[in-house]
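Quick question, first post here. What does this chain look like in 3D?
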Amino acid sequence: MSHSMQAQYEQTPAADNTTMFVFGAGGDLVKRLLIPSLYNLDRDQLIDPNMRIVGVDLAEHDDAGFRAHLKQFIADKAADHHSEGRGSALDESRWREFEQRLHYLQGDFTDEAIYRQIEDAIASSDSGNAIFYCATASRFFGEIARQLGQAGLLTEQGGNYRRVIVEKPFGHDLESAQALNAELLDVMREDQIYRIDHFLGKETVQNILVARFANVLFEPFWNNHYIDHIQITAAETVGVEERAAFYDKAGAMRDMVPNHLFQLLAMVAIEPPAAFGADALRSEKSKVLGAIRPWTTEEAAHNSARGRYEAGKLGDREVPGYLEEPGVDADSRTETFVAMKVMVDNWRWIGVPFYLRTGKRMSARDTEIAICFKPAPYAQFRNTDVERMASNWLIIQIQPNEGMWFDFQAKRPGPELAMDTVKMGFAYKDFFDLPAVTGYETLIYDCLTGDQMLFQRADTIENGWRAVQPFLEAWSREPGIEGYPAGTDGSSGAHELIQRDGRLWHKVGEPTGPGVAPVPKRSEKPAS
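> Answer (accepted):
Ran it through. Tokens below.
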């Protein structure tokens, strides 16, 4: 860690003492993201020395077994990161200190007996504060909240807090999201609910706000007078992996769009908040999603495309198609790729299309926001060798190479007037020492300290589903899905969608603007 980053952590106070109960402690999320994040926070002295972490699940474990189960996975991942030049191998002595925080309760989430054990655990701790983390399948969220409420575990008294963290997916459509919000708000207040989206924990996402509002250069041009369109991409090279049971019911739309992609859209499109506080920022984000034009089902069908990856090649590796993946229903009608166009009908963005796409088994791993500015007038170059004016692009890359790049036009050396694109960029790794982190550290620390700025509010969730609902209804009427070979950039329909407007997709994995994606040939027949 660099001196400047070490100083930054030294200036950040540790959170108050609490007990965190993790429902679904045997799941992949807990060992892959949550426990490593807490370990990192402990390393950086950002959690109280007496904080306890209590796993709750059906699997038979005692404290020692739970600790050993987690240690092996985390040690293997740390070794992988170290071999890639990110972070260091697991520090055995530090882990021995950290694991003393880890405890385990065996029980059924639907059985009130486990909640009596939780009550006893809080009573025996050094603090009456408690956080309940729902890292379970989404069908248990409402039940856990109801049981916590009935047991009196959400009641705050004596200056102690009680908070609930809820993972995605938060519902599977508008109606279910509204029902889940109602269940949660029936037993607790909105300020006790932390709906978590790990995208918002990434440094580059948070830097969107700083770049926009701390640099006077950007704000005068951040509107429909100067911006032609905005593209938001979340491309993955991985397939369904071990998530088939969940993914085959969700698909790319439900898994990514109402949460991750709409959160990125909101961060780019919000009005300047009155202050950098939770209420002001979340209100502005909710307004943006509430301003998304409500397409009819016919308009939604016209302004979207979906696909499903088929067998193909990633690098030198042959990979199977989605329907051949273990655990996937052979008659599945689930999409693994979606592209869509949305319009934000407010004064700042009226007339500016937002193109969103996300998919699995694409050509490169890349999460980015590509902002295309309108080209300068051509008139003054009419009698020169300049054939056309290129647009300026601002590329904000969220992962894997966090940073921002801006393209502008400059004269090419020589006697004739010819232009070329000059690339100016900022990569986080070139300026800051970035330790290996999961992206959850900031969000968990914020929950421990009661800061809800990076968490979703009920109205934001519902506005996101309200915008998605017409697409879901349109697809239910037309179940056919176009295939695309693994290792490519999605369905032909996605290219047709943006080409109808005279535009092209920014090339996946290309950190600068002018690279555009090649237009694939349409498959012989759509996948059924």
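Confidence is low (pLDDT under 50) at residues 1-7, 522-528.
The CA atoms of residues 153 and 394 lie 48 Å apart.
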